[in-house]
């Protein structure tokens, strides 16, 4: 069935040997002390603080 797609035999001596992957060595660093981490925390906290402030102002200025 696949005879029309058959090209030829594989020469196993020309196939390179399989190598195991060795990850490059990277220095370990504390991810919580990077400036990017501080920016991410601020991007999360500032909108929540603004929303909380808006709710507090609405609560105290609301007429009964």
Write the layout of secondary structure elements.
Blueprint: H1 35-61
What does this protein look like?
Keywords: Membrane, Transmembrane, Transmembrane helix. This is (thale cress) hypothetical protein. This protein has one domain. It contains one helix and no strands. Helices cover 42% and strands 0% of the residues. By secondary structure, the protein is mainly alpha-helical. The mean pLDDT is 87. The protein starts with 34 loop residues before the first helix and ends with a helix.
Question: Keywords for this structure?
Answer:
mainly alpha; 64 residues
Task: Give the fraction of residues assigned to helices.
Answer: 40-55%
Instruction: Please report the total strand number as a whole number.
Output: 0
Helical segment tally?
1
Strand content: under 5%
- End-to-end distance: 85 Å
The SS-based structural class is mainly alpha
Main sheet characteristics = none
> Which value, in Å, is the CA radius of gyration?
31 Å
**Overall average pLDDT:** 87
Uncertain stretches: none
Outline, from the CA principal axes?
A: elongated
**Could you state the order of secondary-structure elements as H and E?**
H
Number of domains: 1
């Amino acid at each position: 069935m696949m005879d029309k797609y058959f090209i030829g035999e594989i020469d196993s001596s020309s196939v390179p040997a399989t190598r195991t992957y060795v990850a490059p060595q990277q220095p370990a660093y504390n991810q919580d002390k990077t400036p990017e981490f501080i920016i991410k925390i601020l991007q999360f906290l500032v909108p929540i603080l603004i929303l909380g402030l808006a709710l507090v102002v609405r609560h105290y200025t609301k007429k009964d």
